[in-house]
Design brief:
heterodimer, A: alpha/beta, Alkaline Phosphatase, subunit A, eight-stranded mixed sheet, 8 strands, B: mainly alpha, serine acetyltransferase, domain 1, 8 helices, disordered N terminus
């Protein structure tokens, strides 16, 4: 070999050895360039429209006893309508958390879907947002899967929704370059697992039989030219992940069908509400897959349109369910010292009530874009988060932190915020929360 | 005169109203009312290339049910499965689960292994007609027959599962 050729080959080899580590198994060229503050983020959308007057302001007592310090009792006139759940926390969560008491959902209609979309895309939406269609801007799941570490498979990103309707569409966007390929696994557990009688008795094939089925299907698929870009809409797990997911789903379905799965696993009186069930089944997802990014919501609080006392009750139940989630994180060997929990309502409720009076004489509350309906709170707890820190208004009496800051903050915690292309996000990282 | 007519017509109206009431009540209680969601009339395709349109969820589920049970799915069952479909992000997984559950029901109409092995070529032909609504081309007929004959552990249920979870089955 000539000297010139040798030097050329050596240079190419050296360059290759530097570049190759960044060609990841997922096919991405580069790993996320930032430093992770934690390996997991769980976002609990304390949703359904929670007014700060009742949550942080404790206007009818401390409804969030597992979260907030204080022993203020429930207002006597509505106390008979409020479920007395046992206290879970030995000390309220705010003592090991940073609490933004004057957070804001600053722009856009104070509608549940708009505000969910703002929290999950980092972009305020306007009236033109389409229901039952993916949002127009990338979701946090897509940023995570496109710009994060080599382990960014769909099982690492979960959207656990308490409702159907438009909400299942929040697991990926229609934004060019992102979309379903980077979306999260989505499940609405209550609707899904309620079909245990229809879906809890599948035929099962041995591995060798599966292989034969795959062989025949590969042949059949080879004979058919798919006329559209994708065979079905929605996210697609890799075959191995799909099998793992289906095993989990089948096992849970079968347990429900056979009565192994408890109807009231938390033993609460009188029964598990929708929010409780959603958190409970979301915890099952966390335990099974240890996802790096999970968003789970609650929505029962929206009863506030029709019954104030039930709204107050639902806030207490949501607080209980959220703390169960926190306990599950703390009890998990993988998650307990490597997770940040973020708790935030999607929007608030109006200053003035509507005309619907409940059994206790209280008037209900809508949410129609007034200033009060934009006032919410945000709590961060877990790895690398300051303890016992409360952040209120700034010097000009403005709230600190807003909904569109959640996406940059999650990206920062998981170490890929600087990899997100400029111009997509207007929020900031909530650095005040970091220790 | 007018009074007489009114008096005479009242019982008739009452009878009609009562009949309507009982008919409505009877149909309201009939939860297992059968509904059919057909993509189109059963005309055989000449080739797979004629299938250009993705089945909707409702079409996919109801056709799969009809193909396996030779009867129409009830609206109640269909609504339940549609709910589960909406509740799962990975649609391939939920489709797979639906098919696997359909296949495991005792009432699904699946030939025995003996019948399949007695005349594999006829089985392949009938299976393509049943699920793809077309005859297999010569290559498909030969290749499927060959795979089944060479792999003695392949069962009719496996073949059905394979075709019902293939790409072509998602289209019409």
């Amino acid at each position: 070999m000539k000297r010139k050729q040798f030097i050329k080959n050596a240079a190419l080899t050296a360059a290759g050895s530097m570049v190759m580590p960044y060609i990841l198994p997922t096919g991405r060229l580069f790993a996320a360039s930032g430093t992770r503050r934690a390996g997991h983020v769980v976002v609990c959308l304390f949703a359904g429209g929670v007014r700060n007057t009742e949550s942080m302001g404790k206007a009818d007592g401390n409804l969030m006893r597992n979260t907030l310090n204080g022993t203020e009792s429930i207002s006597a006139d509505i106390a008979p309508g409020v479920t007395q759940l046992p206290m879970l926390a030995s000390t309220p969560l705010q003592n090991e958390a940073t609490l933004f008491k004057e957070f804001r959902y600053a722009e856009g209609p104070t509608g549940h879907y708009n505000a969910h979309a703002a929290a999950m895309t980092g972009v305020y939406s306007d009236q033109s947002i389409q229901l039952k269609q993916p949002p127009p801007f990338p979701t946090i799941f897509e940023y995570y899967r496109k710009h994060n570490s080599p382990t960014n498979n769909a099982l690492n990103a979960w959207w656990v929704s308490n409702s159907l309707g438009p909400y299942p569409f929040l697991n990926y966007s229609s934004y060019e370059g992102y979309g379903a390929a980077y979306g999260a696994n989505m499940i609405q557990p209550d609707a899904f697992f309620s079909q245990a009688n229809s879906l809890g008795n599948p035929v099962s094939f041995a591995q060798s039989e599966k292989a034969k089925c795959d062989m025949m299907r590969d042949f059949a698929n080879g004979q058919f030219k798919v006329p559209q870009q994708a065979i079905s809409s929605g996210i697609v797990n890799s075959p191995a992940d799909a099998e793992r997911l289906q095993t989990f789903l089948n096992r849970t379905m079968t347990d429900i069908r056979n009565g192994v799965f408890p109807q009231n696993p938390w033993g609460v009186t009188p029964y598990m509400t929708g929010d409780m069930k959603n958190i409970y089944l979301g915890i099952e997802v966390l335990k099974e897959f240890k996802p790096e990014l999970t968003v789970i919501n609650m929505t029962d609080i929206d009863i506030g349109h029709f019954d104030y006392t039930k709204y107050v009750n639902a806030i207490g139940i949501a607080d209980y369910a959220m703390y169960k989630l926190w306990q599950a994180i703390k009890a998990d060997d993988v998650l307990k010292n490597d997770t940040v929990l973020i708790v935030v309502p999607e929007h608030g409720r109006n200053e003035l009530p509507n005309s619907v009076v409940d059994a206790y004489g209280r008037k209900a509350l809508d949410h129609n874009n007034d200033a009060k309906s934009r006032e919410i709170f945000c709590l961060l707890a877990g790895t690398g988060i300051k303890h016992n820190t409360v952040i209120g208004l700034d010097n000009q009496n403005n709230g600190i932190g807003q909904s569109i800051d959640l996406v940059p903050t999650i990206a920062n915690i998981l170490g890929f915020d600087t990899d997100i292309p400029g111009g997509l996000l207007n929020g900031r990282v909530l650095n005040e929360a970091y220790s | 005169m007018t009074t007489t007519n009114k008096t005479a017509s009242l019982p008739a109206k009452t009878v009609i109203l009562l009949a309507a009431f009982f008919l409505l009540a009877a149909s309201a209680c009939n939860k297992d009312q059968r509904v059919t969601y057909e993509v189109q009339t059963k005309e055989l395709y000449q080739s797979a290339a004629q299938k250009q349109t993705l089945k909707t969820t409702i079409q996919f589920v109801s056709i799969a049910y009809s193909d396996l049970y030779n009867s129409s799915i009830t609206s109640d069952q269909l609504n339940k499965l549609d709910l589960a479909y909406q509740a799962m992000g990975d649609k391939k997984i939920i489709e797979d689960m639906i098919i696997k559950n359909f296949l495991n029901q005792a009432s699904s109409i699946i030939p025995t292994n003996t019948i399949m092995r007695n005349d594999v070529a006829a089985f392949v032909q009938n299976t393509y007609l049943r699920f793809y609504n077309r005859k297999p081309n010569e290559f498909e007929a030969w290749k499927m027959k060959d795979m089944i004959e060479k792999n003695t552990d392949i069962t009719p249920k496996m073949v059905y599962y394979t075709l019902m979870t293939s790409n072509e089955y998602r289209y019409y």
